[in-house]
Design goal:
The protein is mainly alpha-helical. The protein has helices spanning about 5-20, 25-45, 50-60, 65. The chain has one domain (about 5-65).
């Protein structure tokens, strides 16, 4: 099986187990999912070199640019 298939299968097993074990198991499971999403977002942010590009555009951005998220560069 490929990694994505394993992840989906294990996530399905975790959901079934959490539904049978109760509220605390759901909390722990969603805490683990949240941590995984935060780590993934951090890795994508660093590997695409966005902090250097965002910092450059943010230096000349106005308050309106920040509030409308126009300081975030397009990657196309």
């Amino acid at each position: 099986m490929r990694a994505g298939s394993w992840f989906g299968a294990l996530f399905g097993v975790a959901v079934v187990l959490a539904s049978r074990l109760g509220t605390m198991a759901w909390r722990v499971m969603w805490l683990a999912v949240g941590i995984q999403l935060a780590v993934t977002a951090t890795l994508v942010w660093q590997r695409t070199r966005l902090p250097r590009q965002v910092r450059q555009r943010s230096e000349s951005a106005t308050l309106a640019d920040l509030l409308l998220f126009r300081h975030i560069p397009y990657l196309r």
